[in-house]
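Late entry, written up from scratch paper. The run itself happened at the end of the previous shift, but nothing got recorded in the book at the time, so transcribing now.
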Amino acid sequence: MLVVHRESGEIEHRSFRELPGYLRADDLLVLNNTRVVPARFFSNDGSREVLRLEPISPLRWRCMVKPGKKFKIGHMVQIGESNGTVREILENGERIIEWDSLVDENVHGHLALPHYMGRDDQPADRERYQTVFAQSAGAIAAPTAGLHFTPQMLSTLPHAFVTLHVGVGTFQPVKVEKLSEHQMHSEVYEVGVETSKRISNAKRVIAVGTTSMRTLETVARDHGKVVPASGSTDIFIYPGFQFRVVGALLTNFHLPKSTLMMLVSAFAGRDLIMKAYTEAIRERYRFYSYGDCMLIV
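Output as recorded:
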C-alpha cells in the first residue's frame, strides 16, 4: 500500500494490513457493495457478442455489441434457446435488444473481465472477481479497491455501504482534447438511510474506491449533502472538481488517460500523483484490478 499525504507531499511504502493505523477517531470507511454479474454473451455460432449494459426489463436490454454490422435494426441473435431482435440503435452505437424468452445468464453469461487481463473469464472468477461484501447484483466490473479487504479486517473497522453498479465506463480512455466533452456512461447508484446518517456523524469519510467516491460526490452535488438517494450518475471528476464529502481515498493504480486517473489527480493534484506513480513503478507495485493499492490522505 502506497500512502500519499496531500498536504506534505510525503509518500510512504506500507502494507495494506497497516491501514487501521491511518484511521482517526470518528473516521468512516464507505465501500461499494455491488456484485458483478455475468453480462457478456456470445451467439450460439460464436460470431456475435452482446454486452448487457442495463436490463431495461428482463426481456429488453441496452447493450454494446460486436460486430456492429451484424446488429442492424431487425437483425436477430440467438443465445441458447432465446432469440433476440435489435429494436433500436442509439446515437452512441448501443443497441436495444428484445428477447422472446429469458436468457439464462448462469449458463450462457460470462464475466466481462478488464481487457488488460488478457484472458477470458474462468469459473473461479465468479467469486474471485468479487469483494467479500458484494451483495447487490448489477455491476459489469468489480469495485476493485474493495478486493483487498477480508471479513476479519472489515469487522474491526467503522464502515458503511453504498451501491454503484460499475459499468463499462471504467474501462473507457479519454480521447477528447477538452475534458468537459468526454461522455461518461451512466451508472445506477443507491445510498441508504443508515449510511447517510453515519456519514453525517463522521469527522472524515474515506471512500474505498473511485466508485464510492463518485456516488457520494454525486449525491452531495445534487442535494447539498449526503442524503438517502437513488438514481443514475454520469459524473466525471477531473482536476478543478470541488469535493464536498470525501476526505481520504483508498484506490488501486489505474490506466493512463483513464477517467480514474483524472479523478485521483483531481483529489491529490496531478504533480503529486505523477510522483507517486513514478515511485510505484520503481518499487514494482502491481497495477490494475488485482494489484496493490494507494491510500490518499
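The radius of gyration is 20 Å.
(Scratch paper discarded after transcription.)
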